[in-house]
Write a structure and sequence with these properties.
9-stranded mixed sheet; about 30% helix; about 280 residues; Dihydrodipicolinate Reductase, domain 2
């Protein structure tokens, strides 16, 4: 939906036209309260169906909070940059998940590198009582830009003549209120169908998923992960998932204490968790 945001589309045009110069760094934050976790499955539910319902909690089902939450900002920043990251270097950890038995970390920090060496610094956190922020920013040679503020919509995109993001340095802001990108993505699709126009977002969607997984795997293994490594990664979270039925065993099982396997950076270097 972010790619269909009218404000961000105009911002992309302005960046490409050189309004703020050449992008030299990007940063993004998705920091909110305790989330993406779960407790033990209820007795009246199969383990598989429980994990599907709680998909944010299980890496095999969704990529966890990293893929499901963070992909949007990684995508929008890469869109503004006009390139995809080629490697990721990351940290992350579990501090206190309370009674949660999910597979997510409490916080993530990822340094993505683009082909020309430009960096995207991404920060994610799911911890209550901490500073919250949900925004993306671009820094360039002649100014800066706000790519998103306060979640995905409205974007409230703006450009500035310096790096302060102050009202005094404002160059341009998309008029408010702005069209809702969740609505616009459907209107764009329907219009393309009616006009019989080529319309295929599969490739960029797939690449966005790949580079997001690259960042997640870098954090979960403690290794620098490249685009090519991720593209050719042989590991499968859920082999034969296409053959699952409602009575199939779940791909990941809890231990005797009811806890599911979690990433172990530096110990598990070629996969994100181990079942045995």
């Amino acid at each position: 939906m972010v790619r269909h945001c009218r404000g961000r589309q105009q911002l992309k045009q302005r960046i490409d036209s050189g309004e703020i110069g050449e992008i030299i760094a990007l940063r993004a934050y998705r920091m909110s309260g305790y989330s993406a976790t779960c407790g033990p499955p209820p007795k009246d539910s199969s383990e598989l169906m429980y994990q599907i319902r709680k998909f944010h909690s299980f890496l095999w089902a969704s990529g966890g909070c990293f893929s499901d939450y963070y992909i949007h900002q990684i995508d929008e920043c890469s869109w503004m940059k006009g390139a995809w990251p080629i490697k990721a270097h990351a940290t992350g950890g579990r501090h206190y998940r309370n009674t949660g038995v999910d597979q997510n970390f409490d916080n993530y920090a990822v340094e993505f590198t683009y082909p020309d060496g430009t960096k995207l610094f991404f920060y994610g956190r799911n911890m209550s009582g901490c500073h919250n922020e949900f925004a993306s920013y671009a820094h360039a040679t002649k100014g800066s830009a706000i790519i998103s503020t306060s979640a995905h919509t409205p974007g409230r995109v703006r450009t500035f003549r310096d790096q302060t993001f102050s009202k005094n340095s404002l160059v341009w802001a998309f008029p408010q209120p702005e069209p809702n990108p969740y609505q616009m993505e459907w209107e764009d699709l329907i219009q393309a169908i009616r006009e019989d126009r080529r319309y295929n977002e599969a490739e960029r969607g797939t690449i966005a998923s790949l580079v997001t997984s690259m960042g997640r795997m870098a954090a979960h293994t403690g290794q620098v992960i490249t685009y090519e490594q991720m593209l050719n990664c042989p590991h499968e979270f859920a082999p034969n998932v296409d053959k699952f039925t409602t009575s199939s065993p779940a791909p990941v099982q809890a231990d005797k204490d009811g806890k599911y396997p979690v990433p172990m950076p530096g110990i598990l270097k070629d996969r994100e968790y181990q079942l045995a």
